[in-house]
Write a structure and sequence with these properties.
By secondary structure, the protein is of the alpha+beta class. The chain folds into three domains: about 5-105, 3-Layer(aba) Sandwich (Rossmann fold), CATH 3.40.50.20; about 135-200, Dna Ligase, domain 1; about 205-450, ATP-grasp fold, B domain (D-amino Acid Aminotransferase, Chain A, domain 1, 2-Layer Sandwich), CATH 3.30.470. It is about 35% helix and about 25% strand. The protein is built from 17 helices and 23 strands. The chain has helices at about 10-25, 40-45, 65-75, 90-100, 110-115, 115-125, 140-150, 175-190, 250-265, 295-305, 305-315, 395-410, 420-425, 430, 440-445, 465-470, 490-495, and strands at about 5-10, 30-35, 50-55, 80, 100-105, 135, 155-160, 165-170, 195-200, 205-215, 220-230, 235-240, 270-275, 285-290, 330-340, 340, 350, 350-355, 355-360, 365-370, 375, 385-390, 410. The strands form six sheets. An eight-stranded antiparallel sheet has the order 14-13-10-11-12-15-22-20, with helices on both faces. The radius of gyration is 23 Å and the shape is globular. The two termini are about 30 Å apart.
Amino acid sequence: MRIRKVLIANRGEIALRIARTLREMDIRSVAVFSSADRDELHVRAADEAYPIGPPAPSESYLRIDRIVETAKTAGCDAVHPGYGFLSENAAFAKAVEDSGLVFIGPPPAAIAAAGDKLNARSAMARMGVPVIPGGPAATVKDAEAAAAKAGYPVALKAVAGGGGKGIRVVRRKEDLAAAFARASSEAQAAFGNGAMYVERFLDAPRHIEVQVLADAHGSAVHLGERECSVQRRHQKLLEECPSPFVDADLRARMGAAAVLAARAVGYRNAGTVEFLVDRERNFHFLEMNTRIQVEHPITELVYGVDLVRLQVEVAEGRPLPFAQTDVAPRGHAIEVRLTAEDPAAGFLPQTGRVEALRFPQGPGVRVDSHLYPGQEITLFYDPMVGKIVVHGRDRADAIARMRRALVEMRLVGIKTCAPLLLALLGDERFRRGEVDTAFLERYLAESAWQRLPDVNDLPAELPVVIAAVLFAHGRQGAGRAVVPPAPAASEWVAAGRREQMR
C-alpha cells in the first residue's frame, strides 16, 4: 500500500525528525500536542496539528484513545510512534491496527515478545543467542534462589523495565531483600508492573547495540553496532559508530546474533538489539528495543541510510532495498545528547527560557533538536533538548569535529551538559577508546572538569571565523552571546497552508 498521511504520536526532536523525512517522501504529516507544546517546532513543521490534552503525558501523549481517534479524524493512513511514550506499547500498536491504520513499527506480538524480558531471554537462548545467567523473581525467595544460582553480584531488573528504572545492583545476599522491595516498588510506579528478574551483574562491561532491519518478505539485516557505554544511571550521554572496541570478526558475530534475535520474536521494521560485552569480547543479550533509537543518526551517517524512510517503506510492504552483503560502514560518527541539566550541581534539572541560541554548522555536523529562541523549558518531559551528531573520516577526526561543534554552540538561558561533554572528549582514556558502563561515574568522581569554562565563554582557540561573526553582530566582548534574528512566522503561514487546530 502507499502511505499518504501519517500521524506522529510523539513530540519534540523525534517528531520533528520524522516530519522531515515524511516531507521528503511527499507524505503529509499530522502532529499532536499537549497544551504545553502548542508552540513547539514539531507542531509548526507538520502539515496539520491537533491538541490531545494537558501537559501531563498520562493525559496527552500516553492516551491511546485520543491519539487513535485523532489519526482517524485527520484521515491518516498510518501512525509513527517515534521513541519513548507509546513506542514500545503492544496495546497501542494493536489499537492502531484494529482501527484500520498502519503502525510504522513491529507487529504487536513482536513488541510484546521482546518487551517481556523473561520470555525474550528464553527465546534468545532457544535461538542460540548468548544470555546472562539468571531467572525470574516473583518474590524475594525467588530472587534469592536465582541469585545463588547466577552468583553474586547480581542485578535486579524490572520485567517491564526500561530507561534505567527498576534496577538495583546487589553484591551481598544480606542486601537482596531491601533492594528487591525498592526495585519492585519503583517498577510498579513506573510501569504498572512490579515483576522482577535476576541476572548476574557484569562489572564494568561495554554496552554495545546492533541496529537491525527486517521486512515482511523474510529478509533481515544488521547495520553494524553503536558504542553506548558512556552513560550515567543507565542513561546514555554519548554514542559512537562504529565501536572502537569491536573488530570485524566481533561485528559479524554480534550482527548475526542480533538478526537471530529479531527472527526469534517475529520482528519486522527497525529495531535494536542490545548486548553487554566483557573484556574478553564475550557478548550477552541484554534486551531488544522495538522502535527507532535516540542514537539512530550515527548509524545513518556511517551507513548512508535514512532509517525513518526505511521504516515507512517496510510498513508499506516493500522489501528491504539491500542485502547484508551490500552493507559496509564508512567513516566514524559520534552523537552527544544535550540535556537541560547542570552536571556541576549533580545533574539538577534546568528550566527557563531560551534567551539566545546558535547551533554549530559546517562540514560533517548534524543537529537534531526542537530548541528555538524564546522557548520555555519545563519539567513536564524528558530533559534531552537535542542531539549534536558529527561524521568524520575516522574516530580522531570525529572527536576533533565534535569538540569544534560544542565550542561553536551558544545557548543562553538554561544550563546544559555541554561543558561536561566537551571535557569528556578531551579525556585521554576516552580518546583511546577505553570506556565501559562505569566510565562516566569514575570520570565524574576523579576529574576536575567542573572548573573548566562553560562553552558559552569564548575559549582562546575559538576559530577566527567565529570571531568575525561576533564582530559582524556587534558582539566583540568575550562570552557575550550572539542573538540570532527573530524566528520567522509559523511555517503554516509561510507555506500558505491552513492551520488546522482544535
